[in-house]
Specification:
The protein has helices at about 10, 25-30, 40-50, 70-80, 95-105, 130-135, 150-185, 190-205, 240, 250-260, 295-335, 345-365, 375-385, 395-400, 405-425, 435-445, 465-480, 490-500, 510-520; strands spanning about 35-40, 60-65, 85-90, 115-120, 140, 210-220, 230-235, 265, 270-275, 280-285. With about 525 residues, it is of the alpha/beta class. It has a five-stranded parallel beta sheet with strand order 2-1-3-4-5, with helices on both faces. Helix 13 (about 375-385) packs across helix 16. It is elongated and about 110 Å long.
Length: about 525
């Protein structure tokens, strides 16, 4: 077998679509193609390597792997999942060793990408027609017909086929990852969590280290200061605390270029994506792949950016909806407070204390099936509606500085069921958990007692909604510590003694447990004078 490469004018057409614009750069950064020679004749290995040693395809050279039996070949394939081409002999340790290896590669290893060229010096042992029909191989050659020229042709054709199959598989896997990542991002309701999720998904899509930065800018203010860093990971994690790129002038210039030109840029290793979004906001994402991106990866990133833009639009609309709901809740709370100025700050403290207690209960794994992300996001705001029913309470009772008589107390207690009814009617207009649905539960149940002696329905234990059980503790805790027209504030010690003493009777013990830990560890979110 000749050592000379094939004449340039005979087979150069095979390489017409493989010439890159910068082959020298690619040669330094891209991995070579792996070609495995499986043959029990050492001279065949030597001749094949000599014939193909100077061959390059898409700027990449060829690395040769060798095995001298079917079993040895299987071990090499197991160790290298990126072998592009196998030159496989048929007769080795047995008459069909090569055929069995081809079958195990396809079936046992589920490898459908590697191209397998069967070459044999004894075609009688493996008739071509039978082999092509019953074994998943890609070409069949006798060793006598594999001249240097034909070997070159077969190799380039196989590498091209392998490259196309890998591209298709990368597309398939990439699109699957994009669909999965988009679904995950649609579940995120925080902008910074969204940004961190984008960086994770870029890393997973390209199978690269999680070294990245995501910045946001308001497109309506192009002359504003440096873009804001929403998320940074890996080697850039320290920038998350800084919040801007003042200490990274080159990166700052590249981000500015992307925002100005509103287009992605791949200047390896400084690759960046541009993602337009709603409300004049725009994102730029920097990441660092180990080698220049290929066409498939660039196309996948374009699709990914479109999905990210749609996911952000979903997040924006979700936040707008929540803001509208929150504004409604605040308006309702203001309506209830308008006639009772002494409790104006009370509802704000109740909101902060409720959020703190539910966070503590989540940490302590209290009621994990009930304390969902949605529940945690909404209960604090919903808690400010706990006394909305007092809009129906007459002034002479609501504002009475002294103790209420039995008839007055009966009227006062109506505020729980009235509040529940007012909010329940509105909550029906909103699907799922909302501020209004939780507010309805809280308004109706925050005067029920854990032992069933409360009002208005004498509910007991866990038949009282968890939201109401939490706000009941918070409401009493704040009321005892605060000055009211009919009482002076209690001390924290006396207040906690009162609440602890009623755990299991008036209050849910697990809610009391969370409050006790917040007090003991001095982690209350509000101050009492």
């Amino acid at each position: 077998m000749s050592e000379r490469p094939p004449p340039a004018d005979e087979d150069d057409w095979l390489l017409d679509d493989s010439q890159d614009e910068n082959p020298e750069i690619l040669a330094e950064t891209q991995k070579p193609w792996k070609l495995l020679i499986v043959d029990d004749e050492k001279d065949v290995h030597t001749a094949t390597c000599l014939a193909l040693r100077d061959v390059r395809y898409k700027g990449q050279s060829i690395t040769f792997l060798s095995a001298f039996s079917g079993e040895e070949g299987l071990e090499v394939v197991k160790a290298h999942d990126d072998i592009a081409l196998i030159m496989l002999d048929v007769v080795m340790e047995s008459d069909d060793a090569g055929l069995q290896l081809a079958r195990r590669i396809r079936e046992e290893l589920a490898n459908s990408l590697t191209r397998i060229v069967l070459r044999t010096g004894q075609p009688g042992h493996a008739p071509e027609q039978d082999v092509i029909l019953h074994y998943d191989i890609n070409d069949y050659k006798t060793k006598t017909e594999l001249t240097t020229q034909k070997l070159f042709t077969t190799t380039i054709a196989s590498l091209r086929a392998y490259e196309n199959l890998v591209s298709l598989e990368k597309n398939r896997q990439g699109l699957a990852k994009i669909l999965e990542s988009a679904s995950d991002l649609y579940e995120i309701h925080s902008l910074r969590e969204f940004a961190s999720g984008v960086l994770r998904q870029v890393s997973a899509l390209l199978d690269i280290a999680p070294d990245g930065i995501l910045c946001i800018r308001n497109g309506s203010e192009p002359g504003s200061s440096l873009p804001e860093i929403l998320a940074a990971s890996g080697a850039y994690e320290h920038l998350a605390e800084v919040g801007n790129l003042a200490g990274e002038p080159k990166l700052a210039a590249l981000f500015e270029q992307v925002f100005r030109e509103k287009i992605r840029t791949f200047q390896h290793p400084y690759d960046m994506l541009y993602i337009p979004a709603r409300n004049n906001h725009e994102f730029a994402v920097h990441f660092m792949p180990q080698q220049p991106l290929d066409a498939v990866e660039c196309d996948l990133l374009d699709v990914f950016c479109q999905r990210i833009s749609a996911a952000y639009d979903n997040l924006y609309l979700y936040q707008q909806l929540r803001s509208a709901q929150a504004a409604t809740v605040v308006a309702l709370a203001d309506l209830a407070e308008f006639r009772d100025t002494d409790t104006g700050e009370h509802v704000l403290r109740v909101q902060k204390l409720t959020d703190a207690i539910v966070q503590e209960m989540r940490i302590r794994n209290h009621y994990p099936d009930l304390i969902s992300r949605e529940f945690m996001d909404r209960i604090g705001m919903a808690s400010i509606l706990h006394d909305i029913g007092k809009v129906a309470t007459p002034d002479h009772i609501l504002l009475k500085p002294g103790k209420l008589d039995p008839d007055e107390r009966t009227i006062m207690e109506l505020h729980a069921s009235i509040g529940e009814q007012i909010l329940a009617k509105s909550a029906k207009l909103v699907e799922g958990i909302s501020y209004l649905s939780l507010g309805s539960e809280i308004a109706g149940g925050h005067h029920e007692h854990f032992d069933g002696t409360g009002y208005p329905l004498q509910l007991k234990g866990q038949s009282i909604p968890l939201s109401a059980r939490i706000v009941q503790v918070v409401d009493v805790f704040d009321a005892l510590l605060s000055k009211r027209p009919y009482k002076m504030p209690w001390s924290l010690e006396d207040t906690m003694h009162y609440i602890k003493g009623r755990a299991g009777s008036q209050f849910d013990p697990l809610v009391v447990d969370a409050l006790v830990h917040l007090v003991d560890e001095n982690r209350l979110p509000v101050k009492f004078s």
